[in-house]
Amino acid sequence: MKAALLFLVLGTPLWAQTIVIQDVRLIDGSGRPAMLHATMIIEDGKIKSVLPLSAKMRPPEASLVLRFTGMTVMPGLINGHGHLGMTKGNTSGPLNDTEENINHQLLQYERYGVTTVMSLGMNRHLLYELRDKQKQGATILTADRGLGTVGGAPAMTLGADQMYRPSSPEEARAAVREMAGRHADFIKIWVDDGLGRLPKQKPEVYRAAIDETHKLGLKIAAHVYYLADAKQLVRDGVDVLAHSVRDTTVDDEFIQLLKQRGTYYIPTLQLEDAFFVYADKFRWMNSAFFKNSIAQELLDYFNSADYVKNVQDDRTSPTHRHALEQAMLNLKMLTTAGVKVAFGTDSGAFPARIAGFAEHRELWLMVSTGMKPIAAIHNATAVNAEMLGIAGQVGTLEPGKYADFIVLDADPEKAIQNTTRIVGVWHRGAEVPHSNSTGVRW
User: Fold this and answer.
1) What is the pLDDT of residues 158-179, one digit of tens each?
2) Phi/psi of residue 430, each to 5°?
3) Cα gap 162→144, rounded to integer Å
4) Has this prediction a pTM greater than 0.85?
5) Which of 70, 158, 395, 441 could covalently link to 162 via disulfide, CB atoms 3.0 to 4.6 Å apart?
6) Exposed (0-12), middle (13-18) or buried (19+): which is 89, by Cβ within 10 Å?
7) pLDDT, tens digit, for every residue of 82-104?
8) Mapping DSSP to helix (H, G, I), strand (E, B) and coil, where does residue 266 land?
9) What is 87-152 written as a DSSP string?
10) What residues pair up with 407 in beta bridges, in sequence order?
């Protein structure tokens, strides 16, 4: 019997008792192959023990025993680069930064197995309020507003309280101190010229931001596009490159810099993919998994002749297709070299980057570069938890950590698309209502 059905039949709040999950194929997020016929015991929302088949155990008295024979359990996904409150349906802008809309997005992430989301910049104080009183939806982490450039990136409509745009090192340091004072989980900077159309943040400004961030004990991520910028940022101490290098092929100097400094690299392949992929009319666009993730007005637009024509006529479409190809080539090289590859999608920044769906699409794109499915899952769970400083709480399914996991009716080690075969999602040791309603394989 499926987990969701058991919850409905028993009518018992699962967090209120010991839960024994028996006979599952368990992918723990560590990068190791799955443990077959495993048993996981959950108490007070956390994992008490994970036992192999050889461990003869009797379930504790008064425990709820769920037997998931033939199913796979894997950690909840952690999106290290998303955005909350930016989009709604086919619109984007500050008017979407409401409690109702953000909660809707958090519930959708969670329903799709994304149990933690880093909203990497462009956030108002509202997100702190929701983070501090949160009772449902994906766990919130926030990088506050972030530091953009006067007249430059990020080139989108934002409220005055959604972005700092310092013009001097002193202003950059002051902005970082303000964000740290609000207990930001991370800091974000934008270093990009919009393909030559915008002014770029000056090195002395972002160096000051990096230095001040580290003085205050936080980590800092950088929006990048060009290899030259990425190299300089790594030399200057940035902790995370929040996007792929997309202008050219990475070289050995860059690879060695990343490895020596321990810098994390988030590919965000789905970012470029989302500019054109819906015009290609893949079969998964007809799947319940996709349709249940998207507002009807946006789905209607993607299915329209106008959308296809707009993509075909857009002079930047070939640029985005090439950027995706370049990003995938670079990811293959960096993975082979042993660079710390993390996971993020930029979902929620624009309507086409769809919360929940984007994360599963990203896994597929990563594996399409030659990465093994178990490695992609590792990057999206344990590696991200380490990057975000929450490895003691989530990221792997092991004793002492929160019971954040996805139940699948197929094995993602055999095909990464099987992460879409969601039977249920559990967050903090309780099953997420309606988490089995996402649909089937795309």
Assistant:
1) 999 999 999 999 999 999 999 9
2) -125, 145
3) 8
4) yes
5) 158
6) middle
7) 999 999 999 999 999 999 999 99
8) coil
9) EETTEESGGG--HHHHHHHHHHHHHTTEEEEEE-S---THHHHHHHT--SSSEEEE--S-B--TT-
10) 73, 424
